[in-house]
Design a protein that fits this description.
- This protein is about 35% helix and about 20% strand.
- It starts with 5 loop residues before the first helix and ends in a 12-residue tail after the last helix.
- The chain has 4 domains: about 100 residues, 2-Layer Sandwich (Uridine Diphospho-n-acetylenolpyruvylglucosamine Reductase, domain 2); about 120 residues, 2-Layer Sandwich (Uridine Diphospho-n-acetylenolpyruvylglucosamine Reductase, domain 3), CATH 3.30.465; about 120 residues, Alpha-Beta Plaits; about 110 residues, Alpha-Beta Plaits, CATH 3.30.70.
- Its cofactor is FAD.
Amino acid sequence: MRRTAMANITANRPDFINVLERIKQVVGPKGWTNDLESMLPYMTDWRGICRAEALMVVRPKTTEEIAKLVTLCAEGCISIIPQGGNTSLCGGSIPLNSGEEIIVSLARMNKVLNVDPDNYTITVEAGCILKDLQNAASKANRYFPLSLAAEGSAMIGGNLSTNAGGTNVLRYGNARDLVLGLEVVLADGRIWNGLRGLRKDNTGYDLKHLFLGSEGTLGIITAAVLKIFPKPTEVCSAFCAVPNVDAAVTLLGIARAESGDAVETFELMPRLMIDLVMKHIADCKDPLKERYDFYVLIELVSSASVDSGISERLESILSNAFESGLVIDAAIAQNETQRQAFWKLRENASESQRIEGASIKNDISVPVSRIAEFYDTAWIKLAEIEPNIRLVAFGHIGDGNLHYNLQISEHGDKNAFLARYEEFSRVVNEIVVEMGGSISAEHGIGRFKRKELAYYKDKVSMDLMGSIKNSMDPAGILNPGKVV
């Protein structure tokens, strides 16, 4: 006999039984499970740090089904955990440990509803896989620029709920900047239909921004109208060794100016990150013959129908950078296969860290002008309190975002290392705040950073956030224990 999630919990809360049975009727026999083995992937975060329990997993097919089940949960005071691809790095899509919540997976709501090439918009359901969304835009000779390592499993609803960043923020902005309209189920079961593909609409408050980045605590995003762009016709990529982080920042400024701001990607990668990827990920190759401390992956993009000249511009930028000492070695991709080989190194950074062992994630942002200062200052202070720690700091320095990750030493004790999470993170975050930065650039707050948010965010901001939460979800049933 298979074990189920509800046997012990509902014995203590018999009022749950009626509500749960009615929810099952709403979604049908294929729309729910309380089998513990089937539920396990939904109850465990991607990094395997936390595992929780839930009453059941519900997989609705329509917005109307979600509205009905939310209404029932509101009546029964049952908490809801909205979940997309469950790729969160902050525990934002995982239940608490009460076992008295239901997980609402958007996976079956995965359709592309409409592509409007002339309006440069695409409308999709929240469970649409990011890669499928990109492909749908491409088939219409358009381009959806949100791109991140988990795009093969991440769902757009989760991307919007966390205001995801990714590798193209420098040119196109965060997920929030790509949204024109939303459809959202509110905490009382009402449906807010804001699915409009308008770039100009001054009819009152721009309500969609309440839900973008709110991590499912104010409503469940069920569909979105998103901006798409002219499809790139030419992409030029280079994998460059630079002497230090300061040189990388200087190179970025020069590349933006001399390319006519055609830089789409500018990613910093340290040698240790490259070593970990090559150690754990098959068929990865070092693009350069010699080893260096720091690298950048730079891409120039053009959507011009005629020769844009960006290839020549990239070569000129790198040639001048060689002469000035900003670049000490480089490889320019000659074809798409070589370009993808560069990206394989960058996109497997998090996966290789996960395989290597325990790590403490610091997803921070500071002004681009202070990236190098932050990098060195934080590392000096961390090394003072733990000489054996390994720094794997990489990321989107074109928009000021570093994944300043601390990796356990090769023979370190996992539990002892993770027990120092607050100590290490406090060192990093104090410097971030001192430099006018953010303790969460693109990953969100979730479960893991609530204390830090309350500590570093000013009181007025926290009061406003609390007021909004209390107004829109007075019973606190939407993703409790996250953000606020």
